[in-house]
Design brief:
It is a single chain. The chain is mainly alpha-helical. The protein has a domain of 68 residues. It contains three helices and no strands. α2 runs antiparallel to α3.
Length: 138
Protein backbone atom coordinates (compact mmCIF):
# COMPACT_ATOMS: atom_id res chain seq x y z
CA UNK A 1 0.00 0.00 0.00
CA UNK A 2 1.38 3.42 -0.92
CA UNK A 3 2.11 5.91 1.89
CA UNK A 4 -0.44 8.37 0.50
CA UNK A 5 -3.15 5.72 0.68
CA UNK A 6 -2.21 4.76 4.23
CA UNK A 7 -2.33 8.42 5.25
CA UNK A 8 -5.75 8.89 3.72
CA UNK A 9 -7.13 5.80 5.41
CA UNK A 10 -5.72 6.81 8.78
CA UNK A 11 -6.93 10.40 8.36
CA UNK A 12 -10.43 9.28 7.45
CA UNK A 13 -10.51 6.90 10.39
CA UNK A 14 -9.35 9.66 12.72
CA UNK A 15 -12.05 12.05 11.47
CA UNK A 16 -14.77 9.42 11.91
CA UNK A 17 -13.51 8.60 15.40
CA UNK A 18 -13.52 12.31 16.24
CA UNK A 19 -17.11 12.72 15.09
CA UNK A 20 -18.23 9.71 17.10
CA UNK A 21 -16.42 11.00 20.18
CA UNK A 22 -18.02 14.43 19.69
CA UNK A 23 -21.45 12.86 19.45
CA UNK A 24 -20.86 10.86 22.63
CA UNK A 25 -19.66 13.97 24.46
CA UNK A 26 -22.71 15.91 23.25
CA UNK A 27 -25.05 13.11 24.31
CA UNK A 28 -23.47 12.83 27.76
CA UNK A 29 -23.57 16.62 28.44
CA UNK A 30 -26.22 17.87 30.88
CA UNK A 31 -29.56 18.75 29.26
CA UNK A 32 -29.19 22.48 29.79
CA UNK A 33 -25.79 22.76 28.07
CA UNK A 34 -26.34 20.72 24.91
CA UNK A 35 -27.14 23.67 22.67
CA UNK A 36 -24.56 26.12 24.06
CA UNK A 37 -21.23 26.96 22.51
CA UNK A 38 -19.42 25.96 25.72
CA UNK A 39 -20.48 22.32 25.40
CA UNK A 40 -19.64 21.82 21.72
CA UNK A 41 -17.27 24.12 19.86
CA UNK A 42 -18.35 25.03 16.36
CA UNK A 43 -16.82 23.37 13.32
CA UNK A 44 -14.75 26.41 12.28
CA UNK A 45 -12.94 26.43 15.62
CA UNK A 46 -12.18 22.73 15.23
CA UNK A 47 -10.81 23.23 11.72
CA UNK A 48 -8.67 26.17 12.84
CA UNK A 49 -7.28 24.13 15.72
CA UNK A 50 -6.58 21.23 13.37
CA UNK A 51 -4.73 23.48 10.92
CA UNK A 52 -2.68 25.00 13.74
CA UNK A 53 -1.78 21.55 15.06
CA UNK A 54 -0.87 20.37 11.55
CA UNK A 55 1.33 23.43 11.02
CA UNK A 56 3.03 22.94 14.39
CA UNK A 57 3.67 19.25 13.80
CA UNK A 58 5.01 19.94 10.31
CA UNK A 59 7.36 22.59 11.68
CA UNK A 60 8.48 20.23 14.41
CA UNK A 61 9.14 17.45 11.89
CA UNK A 62 11.18 19.79 9.67
CA UNK A 63 13.17 20.99 12.68
CA UNK A 64 13.93 17.51 13.94
CA UNK A 65 14.77 16.37 10.40
CA UNK A 66 17.17 19.28 9.98
CA UNK A 67 18.79 18.49 13.30
CA UNK A 68 19.21 14.78 12.50
CA UNK A 69 20.39 15.19 8.89
CA UNK A 70 24.14 15.51 9.74
CA UNK A 71 23.92 12.52 12.07
CA UNK A 72 22.29 10.46 9.32
CA UNK A 73 25.12 11.36 6.96
CA UNK A 74 27.80 10.46 9.51
CA UNK A 75 25.89 7.29 10.42
CA UNK A 76 25.79 6.26 6.76
CA UNK A 77 29.52 6.83 6.35
CA UNK A 78 30.24 4.90 9.53
CA UNK A 79 28.00 2.04 8.36
CA UNK A 80 29.89 1.80 5.06
CA UNK A 81 33.26 1.79 6.82
CA UNK A 82 32.24 -0.90 9.31
CA UNK A 83 30.81 -2.96 6.44
CA UNK A 84 34.11 -2.55 4.59
CA UNK A 85 36.03 -3.86 7.60
CA UNK A 86 33.77 -6.90 7.90
CA UNK A 87 34.12 -7.60 4.19
CA UNK A 88 37.91 -7.42 4.58
CA UNK A 89 37.99 -10.09 7.32
CA UNK A 90 37.53 -13.07 4.93
CA UNK A 91 40.29 -11.61 2.76
CA UNK A 92 42.64 -11.55 5.75
CA UNK A 93 41.70 -15.13 6.63
CA UNK A 94 42.00 -16.62 3.12
CA UNK A 95 45.17 -14.83 1.93
CA UNK A 96 47.54 -17.13 3.95
CA UNK A 97 45.82 -20.22 2.45
CA UNK A 98 46.14 -18.72 -1.00
CA UNK A 99 49.85 -18.08 -0.41
CA UNK A 100 50.42 -21.67 0.77
CA UNK A 101 48.67 -23.11 -2.31
CA UNK A 102 50.34 -20.80 -4.84
CA UNK A 103 52.59 -23.54 -6.15
CA UNK A 104 49.64 -25.67 -7.27
CA UNK A 105 47.67 -22.91 -8.96
CA UNK A 106 47.79 -24.48 -12.42
CA UNK A 107 47.90 -28.29 -12.21
CA UNK A 108 48.67 -29.28 -8.63
CA UNK A 109 46.57 -31.33 -6.22
CA UNK A 110 45.05 -28.19 -4.65
CA UNK A 111 44.09 -26.62 -7.97
CA UNK A 112 40.33 -26.47 -7.26
CA UNK A 113 40.82 -25.26 -3.70
CA UNK A 114 43.19 -22.58 -4.94
CA UNK A 115 40.67 -21.33 -7.52
CA UNK A 116 37.80 -21.26 -5.00
CA UNK A 117 39.97 -19.45 -2.44
CA UNK A 118 41.11 -16.96 -5.06
CA UNK A 119 37.49 -16.33 -6.06
CA UNK A 120 36.46 -15.71 -2.44
CA UNK A 121 39.39 -13.34 -1.92
CA UNK A 122 38.61 -11.39 -5.09
CA UNK A 123 34.89 -11.04 -4.31
CA UNK A 124 35.37 -9.93 -0.71
CA UNK A 125 38.26 -7.64 -1.60
CA UNK A 126 36.03 -5.98 -4.21
CA UNK A 127 33.19 -5.57 -1.69
CA UNK A 128 35.53 -4.14 0.93
CA UNK A 129 37.22 -1.67 -1.41
CA UNK A 130 33.96 -0.44 -2.93
CA UNK A 131 32.45 0.01 0.53
CA UNK A 132 35.35 2.22 1.60
CA UNK A 133 35.24 4.01 -1.75
CA UNK A 134 31.52 4.80 -1.36
CA UNK A 135 32.15 6.03 2.22
CA UNK A 136 34.91 8.31 0.90
CA UNK A 137 32.60 9.75 -1.80
CA UNK A 138 29.95 10.79 0.76
Amino acid sequence: MRPETIGRVLGTGLRVAGRIAGQHITASAPAGQQGTAAAVPNRADGHAAGRAARRASGSLARGVGGFLRPFARVGGILWLEVTGVFFFLPVAVFIPNLWRMRASWQHGPDHTTFLVTAGVVVVFLYLSVTSFWRARRR
